[in-house]
Amino acid sequence: ILATGALTASAAAIPGDLLYGVKTASENVRVFFTWDAEERAALQERYQARRLDEAHAIIRERRPATLPLQGRIEQLTAGEWLVSGLTITLTSDTLVEGSPAIGARVEGRVRAPGDGRLIGQRLEVLDAPAVVVAPTTAPASPP
Fold this sequence. Notes:
It is a single chain. By secondary structure, the protein is α/β, with parallel strands linked by helices. Helix content is about 35%, strand content about 30%. The protein has helices spanning about 1-10, 20-30, 35-60; strands at about 65-75, 80-85, 85-90, 95, 105-110, 120-125. Strands 1-2-3-6-5 form a 5-stranded mixed β-barrel. A hairpin with a 2-residue loop joins strand 1 and strand 2. The radius of gyration is 20 Å and the shape is globular. The relative contact order is 0.13.
């Protein structure tokens, strides 16, 4: 009964809340025991959407927290990335692994200092989209 109560109470937890670890641990267990690949992918996508909602809540409430980040790079500017609708500020302390590119998938950790910003701590670029190069033809040589 106690475990069920903790799981139920943790459902609305966001990073920084006491029961947030219970929430993410139960999600990880559920993903682990989902054998169907399509169902597992759908579950992971739903949990990724939850993480984005939690990040928006942290920003809106101006709560200090450290939270996971997963998404796709939508925009790159000097000192900022737009990742799945979230503006991530990069500082000299931000560790970036991989080559950032528009459309690339990113995972990592960000810190919300409580002022409405997200600051990148560790960002790993996992799959930069391939650059498509149009084939060139050699100039025709005279006969």
